[in-house]
């Protein structure tokens, strides 16, 4: 059966979201990484925070510039800046379009990924902090309250508001359910994606920020304690709490390892999914707020220097 291009792009998105980005790293006999990563840096806009991959290109949210930068992932070539809401923080890709959370404009902006044209601006919550696509719908955290919002991607129609914990920040989809990190509630909330039904609230650390799914378990950065938490998705049981450096913030999965951005050390740490051990650390500019994988490389935003760093495996 031959699928149309939008369907193929959605399938690609789900592969990246659920199973990470299939990376080239290998391990030696004791589980330590044997891949060395080099780095290069590209200029973006003012105050870069979130970063997102659309299957071909990298998008960076410039929180002080009220715009987003599009770079070609293969070589970092600048492809354009596009105006969005005020203080954009985070992104998601729905297979065709980019959705940008405008934190201070209380808006979500929908951009066509191919050319950056604005297709819609939707005011559906207060202080949108993070946004994710579940294969069917868009989910957004409202950081100033205790809710997440579910939207239909075709027209931005609000499909529901759902209670979570205090000051929800990061959000993640694991194939059936949506998980939300409540930085004020010191917890994560599990919602059924189909109808928003509350499936559980689980205590986590001192300041749970962002989440990543490794295909089996959920990983959560706990910034204030300097740790990363591994949680079983079936019942929310904590399977381990591991060092995330000094100030772990954003997090992603590359298909084999967990990667964490460290705001204080200005590094990206690579962790073993089996032991939680930090296997390698790489310099990642100044104040690396965002991190993502493009299928082969790791991209980290540098808030202080208005750049993004690409970590790529040495050949």
Write the layout of secondary structure elements.
Blueprint: H1 5-19, E1 37-43, E2 48-53, E3 57-62, E4 67-72, E5 78-83, E6 88-93, E7 97-102, E8 107-112, E9 118-122, E10 128-133, E11 138-142, E12 147-151, E13 158-163, E14 168-173, E15 177-182, E16 187-192, E17 198-203, E18 208-213, E19 217-222, E20 227-232, E21 238-243, E22 248-253, E23 257-262, E24 267-272, E25 278-283, E26 291-293, E27 298-302, E28 307-313
Antiparallel strand pairs: 1-28, 2-3, 3-4, 4-5, 6-7, 7-8, 8-9, 10-11, 11-12, 12-13, 14-15, 15-16, 16-17, 18-19, 19-20, 20-21, 22-23, 23-24, 24-25, 26-27, 27-28
Report on the structure:
- The protein is mainly beta and 315 residues long.
- The chain has one domain: 7 Propeller (Methylamine Dehydrogenase, Chain H), CATH 2.130.10.10.
- The protein is built from 1 helix and 28 strands.
- The strands form 7 sheets. A 4-stranded antiparallel β-sheet has the order 1-28-27-26, with no helix packed on it. Strands 2-3-4-5 form a 4-stranded antiparallel β-sheet, with no helix packed on it. The chain has a 4-stranded antiparallel β-sheet with strand order 6-7-8-9, with no helix packed on it.
- The radius of gyration is 18 Å and the shape is globular.
- The termini are far apart.
- The relative contact order is 0.15.
- Mean pLDDT is 91; it is low at 1-30.
Which key features would you list for this structure?
315 residues, mainly beta, Methylamine Dehydrogenase, Chain H, 4-stranded antiparallel β-sheet, 28 strands, 5% helix, globular
């Amino acid at each position: 059966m031959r699928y149309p291009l939008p369907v193929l792009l959605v399938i690609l998105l789900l592969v990246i979201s659920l199973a990470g980005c299939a990376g080239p790293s290998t391990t030696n006999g004791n589980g330590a990484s044997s891949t060395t990563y080099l780095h290069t840096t590209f200029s973006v806009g003012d105050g870069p925070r979130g970063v997102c991959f659309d299957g071909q290109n990298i998008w960076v949210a410039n929180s002080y510039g009220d715009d987003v930068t599009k770079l070609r992932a293969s070589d970092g070539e600048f492809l354009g800046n596009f105006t969005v809401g005020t203080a954009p923080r985070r992104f998601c890709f729905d297979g065709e379009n980019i959705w940008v959370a405008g934190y201070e404009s209380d808006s979500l902006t929908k951009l066509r990924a191919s050319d950056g044209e604005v297709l819609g601006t939707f005011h559906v919550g207060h202080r949108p902090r993070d946004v994710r696509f579940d294969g069917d719908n868009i989910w957004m955290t409202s950081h100033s309250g205790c809710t997440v919002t579910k939207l239909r991607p075709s027209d931005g129609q609000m499909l529901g508001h759902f209670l979570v914990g205090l000051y929800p920040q990061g959000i993640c989809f694991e194939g059936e359910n949506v998980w939300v990190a409540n930085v004020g509630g010191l917890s994560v909330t599990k919602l059924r994606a189909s109808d928003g039904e509350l499936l559980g609230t689980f205590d986590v650390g001192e300041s749970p920020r962002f989440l990543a799914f490794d295909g089996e378990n959920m990983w959560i950065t706990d910034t204030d304690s300097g740790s990363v938490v591994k949680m079983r998705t079936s019942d929310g049981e904590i399977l381990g709490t591991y060092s995330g450096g000094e100030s772990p913030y954003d997090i992603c999965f590359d298909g084999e390892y967990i990667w964490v951005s460290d705001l204080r050390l200005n590094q990206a740490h690579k962790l073993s999914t089996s032991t939680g051990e930090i296997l390698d650390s790489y310099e990642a500019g100044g104040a690396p707020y965002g991190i993502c994988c493009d299928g082969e490389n790791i991209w980290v935003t540098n808030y202080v220097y208005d750049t993004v760093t690409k970590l790529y495996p040495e050949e």
